[in-house]
Amino acid sequence: MRVYHGSSLHIDEIDLSKGRWGRDFGRGFYVTNIRSQAEVWAARKGQETGTSGVVTEYDFMEYAYEDDRLKVLRFDSYNEDWFDFIILNRSAPRNQVHDYDIVEGPVADDQISTRIFLYQSGILTKQEFLDELRFKKLTHQMCFCSVLSLQMLVPVDT
């Protein structure tokens, strides 16, 4: 599967220590299988750094899903398990709270992040939050959290 990473620069070598804490699926290297989504990420990072932004392409070796050496967690949709996992990761800004090598599922984008804040503030219930997601267009992200998982990404020469 072709996946894309949007950033302020081309990624020649992935450095997991540069991943930020408190992200949807924890600290790691994030990609998506939706090129237009990676282009938006690249544009944002470019604006932050005064560059045009770059999308780096990889081939993801899908046999990773069956590799016994890797612990993989996949969310097919916005659901209660996804929500609980996002809240767990975002509530631990300096700590990895899981031991998965790869986590895959929808993105908690800016609109969803605002709704998460409302939930954490007690303004929305979990059920109200989940009810609103029924109408949300699915997005995609994969987080590679371990050095072993990075072996499943092969850079594409473009």
**Amount of helix:** 25-40%
| Oligomeric state, counting identical vs distinct chains | single chain
Widest sheet, order of strands: 2-6-5-4
Give the SSE string: EEHEEHEHHEHE
Beta-strand proportion: 15-25%
N- to C-terminal distance: 16 Å
Quickly count the domains: 1
> Tally the helices: what do you get?
5
- Count of individual beta strands: 7
Low-confidence stretches: none
Structural class per helix/strand content? alpha+beta
Cα gyration radius (Å): 16 Å
Give a written overview of the molecule.
The chain has 158 residues and is of the alpha+beta class. It has one domain. 31% of the residues lie in helices and 19% in strands. It contains 5 helices and 7 strands, in the order ββαββαβααβαβ. It has helices at residues 35-49, 80-90, 110-120, 126-133, 147-150, and strands spanning 2-7, 29-31, 54-60, 72-74, 102-105, 141-144, 153-155. The chain has a 4-stranded mixed β-sheet. α2 (80-90) links the parallel β4 (72-74) and β5 (102-105). The radius of gyration is 16 Å and the shape is globular. The mean pLDDT is 91.
